[in-house]
Structures are given as C-alpha cells and as structure tokens.
Specification:
The chain is α/β, with parallel strands linked by helices. It has a domain at about 150-258: Metal-dependent hydrolases (TIM Barrel), CATH 3.20.20. About 45% of the residues lie in helices and about 15% in strands. Helix 7 packs across helix 8. It starts with a strand and ends in a 5-residue tail after the last helix.
C-alpha cells in the first residue's frame, strides 16, 4: 500500500481530508458532499468545494450522487412501526405529506449532485459516485453530461447488466469487501466478467471490511483481500489484478497533479 485517498462526505470532512493530504505525502483527497447530507448542506456547495480544490492534493470530486435508501417517509414509517405509504394509492393527508417530503429530499440531492458535477467539469476532475436505490435517476443525470464527466461508481453491488450500463457511458466501477462475503457471489460474478481495465478495488472504509475482518473497521491494507478474491474469481494471479487496478486508478485520479 503506497497511496491512500481520503474522501470527504461534507464540507467539513472534505476540509479535514485536504488537511490530511497536505500533511502526509502518501495521502490524497477527494472532496464532496454525500447525498445523505443533503438536508444539512447549504444551498451552495460549489463555492467552498472550489476553494478546497485549489489544493493540488485534491484528485477527485466526491462522494456525490443519489441515495434513496433513507427517504423521510421510510424513516417516519420506521418510527411509527407502520408500512411505508404510497401517496398514489391513497390520498390521506399524512401519506401526501410523506410523498411531498420525499420529493423535496430527492430534489435537494439532485441539485447537490448537479452542482458537484458542474464543478467537476469546470475543474476537469473526475467524480466518485455514490448510488443507492436511485439507479435510474443517477444515470439520467449523468447522461446529460455525456463524456464531459468521468466517474467511478464506488462500492458497486449491482448486476452485470447495470455494470455494462455504467461502462457503456464511459464510467468505471469499484469493488469492496462485499466480493469476499459468503453472500457476495453475485458481485463476485460481476467482478469476474467485466473487462480487467474497467474497475478498481477499494475499502469503503470504515465499512465493509472483507471476510476475515467482517464487522470490524475496514482499513486500506484490506484492499489486498478484495483483489485476491477477484483474482480467484477470474482465475488469474493477484499480481495481474493489482497491476491492472493500479494502472486504472493512476489514470483516473492523476496523482501527478499533486
């Protein structure tokens, strides 16, 4: 392990990421506002991120994207221990209010996502994309940018068809410790079939520690286990996977910018 990218999920954590990267020569920073921070984020995230991006240690924008896993209506339903409402099926005031809140939350996420994509185009930086339960909307936004944007769908856990959708748009995917899990067979199968130069390996630290460390804090050194699992699934050597994913990461993040 020779280089680490520490990733921002808010303006404050992005600032800390840059501070770390400027302190340690082996650390680089990605700066962004995660979609689950939409409600706390200011209307304008472009201005503070643009200022942070002046550091040559910044190698990407992100994490940014869309995440519909914890919509306001879902969280409200959990608190009340009831089923999630669908305003299209019933017109009660409570259900309608939940639908309106969901729409506003999604709209705020989309606005933050587009602000950061616009900034990436302006600064000619690539993007680390977070997507959870928002596949169609995420791709729809990205399609509007065409080849102006190059992104990596981090923590990829989708199907081969979805992986090909991403690759056909000119983006990359990245695999985590999920490929080492007993229930990760579907993701391992995708990692075994996509072209070797179209993916990277990552930690998603502190989450998703691979096999032997599952449930514990994930660390950068654990990417070796992710690469080993993919190598076994593809029937090739660890060295081949390491060489290919390193080359892909170097081209994507352009570390020499720093």
């Amino acid at each position: 392990m020779t280089r680490i990218i520490t990733i921002g999920t808010s303006i404050e954590s992005s600032r800390r990421a840059v501070d770390l990267a400027e302190k340690y020569p082996s650390i680089y920073a990605a700066i962004g506002v995660h979609p689950t921070y939409a409600e706390q984020a200011n209307e304008d995230v472009t201005t503070p991120l643009r200022a942070l991006a002046k550091s040559p240690r910044v190698v990407a924008i992100g994490e940014t994207g869309l995440d519909y896993h914890h919509l306001p209506s879902v969280e409200a339903a959990k608190k009340k221990n009831v089923q999630v409402f669908n305003a299209l099926q019933s017109g009660t005031e409570e259900q309608l209010e939940a639908s309106i809140e969901d729409g506003a939350y999604k709209s705020k996420q989309a606005d933050l996502f587009q602000q950061q994509l616009d900034l990436a185009v302006e600064l000619r930086l690539n993007v680390i994309i977070h997507q959870r339960d928002a596949w169609d909307d995420t791709l729809e936004i990205l399609r509007n940018y065409g080849r102006q944007i190059s992104g990596v769908f981090h923590c990829f856990g989708g199907t081969l068809e979805q992986a090909n959708e991403v690759l056909d748009l000119g983006h990359l995917i990245s695999f985590t410790g999920i490929v080492t899990f007993k229930n990760g067979a579907a993701v391992r199968a995708v990692a075994a079939r996509v072209p070797l130069d179209t993916f990277m390996v990552e930690t998603d630290c502190p989450y998703l520690a691979p096999g032997p460390f599952r449930g514990k804090r994930c660390e950068p050194a654990h990417t070796r286990l992710v690469a080993e699992s993919i190598a076994a699934a593809r029937g090739i050597s660890l060295e081949e996977v390491a060489r290919a994913t390193t080359a892909t990461a170097e081209e994507f993040f352009r570390f020499d910018r720093a």
